[in-house]
Specification:
The protein is an alpha/beta fold. The protein has a single domain, classed as Transcription Regulator spoIIAA, CATH 3.30.750. The protein is built from four helices and four strands, in the order ββαβαβαα. The protein is globular, with a radius of gyration of 12 Å. The termini are far apart.
Length: about 100
């Protein structure tokens, strides 16, 4: 469990902005999925900013991908920042399936 992980959110009319800070591991992935589920039907667009991340643990990324597909999360997610490519990598077919 990454004790330094924080998830900050801001809702602006129909857009949810999420800022991830710290290490992204399995529990961090679940926090992100829970936040997405909470706002899933309430917003048209979700922007996830990754510049605050220190690292992405492979297990955390797999948990996020699996939950994203299982929960049929919004296809309106956009990742920004230094880890955006890793979070939305075209090689990760399971993550692409939720877009």
């Amino acid at each position: 469990m990454a004790l330094n992980f924080r998830l900050f959110h801001h809702l602006n009319s129909d857009t949810l902005f999420l800022r991830l800070v710290g290490d992204f591991d399995g529990s961090s992935a679940l926090q992100l999925v829970n936040a997405l589920n909470e706002h899933h039907g309430k917003v048209k667009k979700i922007i996830i900013h990754t510049n605050g991340l220190t690292s992405i643990h492979p297990f955390g990324l797999r948990v996020f991908q699996k939950k994203c597909v299982t929960n049929n999360l919004s296809h309106k997610m956009t990742f920004t920042g230094k880890y955006s490519y890793q979070m939305e990598s075209e090689e990760n077919e399971s993550l692409r399936a939720c877009y």
